[in-house]
């Protein structure tokens, strides 16, 4: 009975983590560039009471074994990097990647972080920065007397200086991609860090083979599907409830055994 309680408890713990992950997805349904996560589970060790192929009392070989499982455990939170919908903002500082790739930003500690959030701003020195003030890499500086700012699909940044009818090129956006983007470490602020599991970043200009194109005046929205997450929450809730029923049943069986009399 105690074994059944612990097995069911592992199911309740796993489903609680599942609901926590779903809740985080729903909380970020309007977060620019957010990528949803999904918990993956594995069964744990088994107690082998009889091996398959063992000789029975009658001298025959048993076709199947006899195992008792010890429950479930969460092993990973798989992040889906499918592209979210592009929403027009009308702000020329907003940039969306249509396709593969990440923007690169410089962290205060000198490390490079990666993001799909293209809601950039201008700093006091005229550089493109994130909402938290992290500089876009390679750095793009917009002159103070510029009255026009544009970014082409291939990432060329151009400005027009007041009094000069011809636009001037002031920089080139560079994107990064990874062999295994699911291996990136999420650190909040819509940022990811490189890990050995993700592999080294592969750098390239937008529209090159394997890289997406830039859409100025658009933002990539979250790829969370509310209906899908609500269905997943109902499934997780029912699984949690079923495991709690297994604990109650085990407790009742234990009580019956304790009340046996001669």
Description:
This protein folds into two domains: 2-80 and 224-258, no CATH class; 86-220, no CATH class. The chain is 23% helix and 32% strand. The chain starts with a helix and ends with a helix. With 262 residues, the chain is an alpha+beta fold. It is built from two helices and 20 strands. Helix 1 runs antiparallel to helix 2 (226-258). It has helices at 2-27, 226-258; strands spanning 37-43, 46-50, 66-69, 72-79, 86-88, 95-98, 103-106, 112-115, 121-122, 128-129, 135-137, 146-151, 156-161, 168-172, 175-177, 185-188, 191-193, 202-204, 213-216, 218-220.
Short note summarizing the structure:
The protein has 262 residues and is of the alpha+beta class. The chain has helices spanning 2-27, 226-258; strands at residues 37-43, 46-50, 66-69, 72-79, 86-88, 95-98, 103-106, 112-115, 121-122, 128-129, 135-137, 146-151, 156-161, 168-172, 175-177, 185-188, 191-193, 202-204, 213-216, 218-220.
């Amino acid at each position: 009975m105690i074994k059944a309680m612990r097995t069911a408890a592992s199911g309740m713990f796993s489903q609680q983590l599942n609901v926590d992950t779903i809740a985080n997805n729903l909380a970020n349904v309007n977060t620019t560039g957010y990528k949803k996560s999904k918990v993956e589970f594995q069964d744990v060790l088994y107690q082998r009471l009889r091996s398959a192929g063992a000789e029975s009392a009658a001298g025959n070989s048993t076709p199947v074994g006899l195992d008792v499982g010890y429950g479930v455990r969460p092993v990973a939170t798989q992040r889906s990097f499918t592209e979210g919908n592009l929403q027009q903002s009308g702000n020329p500082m907003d940039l969306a990647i249509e396709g593969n790739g990440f923007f690169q930003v410089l962290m205060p500690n000198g490390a490079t972080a990666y993001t799909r959030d293209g809601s950039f701003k201008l700093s006091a020195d005229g550089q493109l920065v994130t909402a938290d003030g992290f500089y876009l890499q390679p750095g793009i500086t917009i002159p103070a007397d510029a009255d026009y700012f544009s970014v082409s699909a291939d990432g060329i940044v151009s400005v027009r200086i007041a009094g000069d009818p011809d636009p001037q090129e002031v920089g080139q956006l560079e994107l990064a991609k990874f062999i295994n983007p699911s291996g990136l470490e999420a650190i909040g602020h819509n940022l990811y860090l490189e890990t050995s599991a993700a592999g080294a970043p592969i750098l390239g200009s937008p529209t090159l083979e394997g890289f997406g194109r830039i859409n100025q005046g658009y933002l990539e929205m979250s790829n969370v599907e509310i209906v899908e997450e609500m269905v997943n929450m109902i499934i997780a809730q029912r699984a949690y409830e079923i495991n709690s029923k297994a604990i109650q049943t085990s407790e009742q069986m234990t009580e019956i055994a304790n009340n046996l009399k001669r």
